[in-house]
Task: inverse folding
């Protein structure tokens, strides 16, 4: 994973710390081990280490939680890696009783990310607490997704913070930020937007005593921290992403950089193949999408209409490189070409795979219903007839299309109109319940509690005002296809697209603070916000300065492996999304950094990567999503 240290921060060092702590924990358990994995933890832990590395620490079995039988265990120790969830304790108790009746082994439980007193009490009640040799916790803090993206992988953060008022994720996020500052120095300037940002910063303040010992020893590598509460901008995840990576996520879902696709169209990354051999069909359509894939790095931030031209140029260049074997005449030239064969083979596999992915995307984007949906979104974004019942939403309900799609469009209209008229909201509710079933009433109620559905009452954020002040949309709803044959990423800045007519408000926040300062943004934003009286202000904005002692930030220094190898005087800004961020927002931040008048580079931190579908699924009541 050499690509992780290619950015301004050597993020691979975070992964190295995680591995060291993880393997130290495993090595503290003598004998062979069988790990029982909470299935939601498997993919995140693959970002830390592969299975082969676990085997080097006497792990001989990896089993899935809820599918373990005593007869399956062959190791001396059974180690549960589990989230602190009460319902899981009952299953663990059953497993232990079944295993103890068959063979003698030691049991260990490792809570991720931390222990839970309620879970321990539950184990005592079930009579199995004494069966555990050790009960520990492992907190990986930030998982490194790419050279500029880190995440605590807490997909239910938005639901827990806004519906259940459970701030466990914010505590974990604050702890992760403190760990980050221990590694890269205290961040001198902090800006926060939204209620959850303030709560998070207060947690950080309470933990500051942990930084006293390193305050004067670690150089500050990050200049600014911008905390953004997802509730401030629910518009960006509600609309369809239209970048290459964004559409792959919309259609197939990307989880911890991995995507699963129909395997028949893809080939394996087999570097042992010769240039003349036919590509082998992949048996598992699982691919990892990160900057370690050179072609994906070029494609991921592109508006989908510009992907084809870039692939054609890439294919032409690859053909030219393979043709060098015909022009090689001397022994030295032939040797140089032979040495390049594994690299060229890898490029050829990447070319074939991304061409197939682009074809899968095109199968969706060529459909009439896709363009109808984008057209509807564009009209709402440009505030066209947002106060009345939307005909396309009516059509979607009459077709019994996926309810998440319908709710996503209603959410979009709610935000654009700053709340729906009572008659309009009642109509949508009635149609949904009669078409999809009354179990969805629970989801609708949850959306109202979270502010995703609400009545227009004159309070809240005025989208129409933000749209003008921060230039969030283009007037035309038609795609800007100018220069479509040019594959340069610069084409998809605001004059290009990450969406069809919309530029993410969260990225405009970052851009405004970077170019005009905090006070200018504060003045512009607060004019468009009107919090409800006698209630907590959800649009809190604050600026704080953290003392860095006598240490000044030293740029371009190679005195520590933690620092960047990039020689630049640009500011380094950490943008943290509380409640999740989309791939389109990540792309927009990357492209913003490329603008000539922006002298900043960005690292993106988040609670998880989301889109409109996953956001609403996290809110939806389990009864509503249960299949009949």
Result:
């Amino acid at each position: 994973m050499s690509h992780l240290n290619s950015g301004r921060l050597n993020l691979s060092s975070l992964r190295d710390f995680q591995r060291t702590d993880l393997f130290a924990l495993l090595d503290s358990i003598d004998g062979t081990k069988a790990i029982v994995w909470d299935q939601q933890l498997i993919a995140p832990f693959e970002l830390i280490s592969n299975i082969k590395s676990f085997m080097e620490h006497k792990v001989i079995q990896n089993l899935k939680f809820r599918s373990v039988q005593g007869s399956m265990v062959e190791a001396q120790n059974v180690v549960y890696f589990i989230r602190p969830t009460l319902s899981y304790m009952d299953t663990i108790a059953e497993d232990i009783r079944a295993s103890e009746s068959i063979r003698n082994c030691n049991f260990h439980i490792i809570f991720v990310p931390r222990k839970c007193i309620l879970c321990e009490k539950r184990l005592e009640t079930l009579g199995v607490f004494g069966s555990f040799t050790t009960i520990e916790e492992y907190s990986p803090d930030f998982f490194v997704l790419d050279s500029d993206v880190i995440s605590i992988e807490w997909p239910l953060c938005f639901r827990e913070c806004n519906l259940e008022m459970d701030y466990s994720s914010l505590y974990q996020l604050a702890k992760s930020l403190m760990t980050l500052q221990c590694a890269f120095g205290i961040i001198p300037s902090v800006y926060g937007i939204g209620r959850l940002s303030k709560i998070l910063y207060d947690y950080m303040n309470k933990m500051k005593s942990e930084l006293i010992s390193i305050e004067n020893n670690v150089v500050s590598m990050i200049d600014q921290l911008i905390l953004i509460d997802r509730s401030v901008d629910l518009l960006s995840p509600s609309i369809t992403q239209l970048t290459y990576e964004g559409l792959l996520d919309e259609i197939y879902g990307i989880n911890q950089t991995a995507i699963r696709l129909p395997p028949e169209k893809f080939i394996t990354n087999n570097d042992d193949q010769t240039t003349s051999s036919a590509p082998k069909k992949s048996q598992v359509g699982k691919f990892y999408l990160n900057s370690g894939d050179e072609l994906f790095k070029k494609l991921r931030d592109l508006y989908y209409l510009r992907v084809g031209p870039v692939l054609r140029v890439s294919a032409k260049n690859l053909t030219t490189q393979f043709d060098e074997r015909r022009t090689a005449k001397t022994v030295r030239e032939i040797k140089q070409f032979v040495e390049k064969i594994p690299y060229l083979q890898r490029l050829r596999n990447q070319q074939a795979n991304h061409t197939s992915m682009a074809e899968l995307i095109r199968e969706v984007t060529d459909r009439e219903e896709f363009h109808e949906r984008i057209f509807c979104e564009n009209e709402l974004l440009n505030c066209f007839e947002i106060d009345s019942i939307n005909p396309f939403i009516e059509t979607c309900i009459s077709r019994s299309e996926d309810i998440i799609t319908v709710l996503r469009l209603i959410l979009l209209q709610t935000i654009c109109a700053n709340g729906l008229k009572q008659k309009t909201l009642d109509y949508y509710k009635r149609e949904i319940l009669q078409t999809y079933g009354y179990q969805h009433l629970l989801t609708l109620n949850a959306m109202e509690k979270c502010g995703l559905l609400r009545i227009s009452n004159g309070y809240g954020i005025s989208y129409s005002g933000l749209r003008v002040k921060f230039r969030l949309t283009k007037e035309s709803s038609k795609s800007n296809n100018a220069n479509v044959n040019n594959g340069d990423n610069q084409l998809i800045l605001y004059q290009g697209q990450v969406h069809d007519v919309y530029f993410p408000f969260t990225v405009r926040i970052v851009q405004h603070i970077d170019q005009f300062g905090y006070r200018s943004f504060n003045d512009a934003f607060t004019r468009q916000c009107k919090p409800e009286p006698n209630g907590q202000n959800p649009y809190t904005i604050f600026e704080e300065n953290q003392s860095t002692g006598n240490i000044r930030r030293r740029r371009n220094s190679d005195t520590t492996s933690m620092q960047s190898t990039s020689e630049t005087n640009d500011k380094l800004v950490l943008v943290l999304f509380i409640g999740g961020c989309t791939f389109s927002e990540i792309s927009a931040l990357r492209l913003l950094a490329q603008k000539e008048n922006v002298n900043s580079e960005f690292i993106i931190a988040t609670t998880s990567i989301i889109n409109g579908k996953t956001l609403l699924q996290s809110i939806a009541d389990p009864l509503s999503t249960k299949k009949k």
